[in-house]
């Protein structure tokens, strides 16, 4: 015979099991199935809702129960000692010293790639100009400039080919022949000296991202002269073994052996040495080695707006130059004979006659460099 106490105990245990043990899907499905077996959908729905309520309460009761107290047996935490702290700092310093050069090299590689892209655009612009005019642009205008003027060379002539047609049109709005009649230098006697905004607007295609020269010639300290956008690439006009400096007036002794020569109209068919072996443009994107007068005076101005070929004392030939010294030469040189050089490591980038871009090391033999600077001297250049 079963006592009432045992029955009550079993009911209590069943209740505890029901409340504390999550109801399985099997139980719920069986109960609902019985109701549905009698084809009583309202009853099945009511049973299901009631079971969900009970199950929700049981889960809430379980979650509200306070967890048992846990006695920690782990050792007490302690702070860093001075030695440990110094070791950590030393390790961090070593990691930074290892990572920083790698980051700098990656940045310089990106800048050099952008510089190469600029030169490729210029090479393409020269060939587009050749297709339109059946000749490459001249290295610099010829003849004596009118009083108070300084002429504009190839940079102004290829503006439409480098997506600067608006600036090209702006120049022609000032003059029918802006490259020969305008004076981009702001002087009291210069025409259009009040319209200098176009001169000081940097042209990204003319600028090497690694260059230490400002996008505008900020070192210029001459009175009445505005800041002008700079040019970091020069045309290759040939070779010379003498300094182009005269004590007075201007020298008319210049080479015509290169691709971008003063007053010249060189065609692709004139490059007998081969377009792939002849230099057309090169970097001069640093003024390292120049004296303070060259950097701050007329001789140190580097804008794309100066294009005349005067070789006189203190005047820098801007838009083209001759190969007289090795790449990156740091010795003595006259103003007009600044060597090709760049802010890249151990060399400079050049555009060949076919528009391709090459990187020439500062260790490139001067004889080889001079042979590459001439277009029809029958030199054989196998490697460089």
Automatic annotation (TrEMBL):
DUF1559 domain: residues covered: 104-366
Keyword annotations of the record: Membrane, Transmembrane, Transmembrane helix
Gene3D superfamilies reported for this sequence: Glycoprotein, Type 4 Pilin (3.30.700.10)
Membrane-crossing segments per the record: 27-48, 79-103
InterPro entries noted in UniProt: DUF1559 (IPR011453), N_methyl_site (IPR012902), Pilin-like (IPR045584), Pre_pil_HX9DG_C (IPR027558)
Domain of life assignment: Bacteria
Protein name (Swiss-Prot/TrEMBL): Type II secretion system protein G
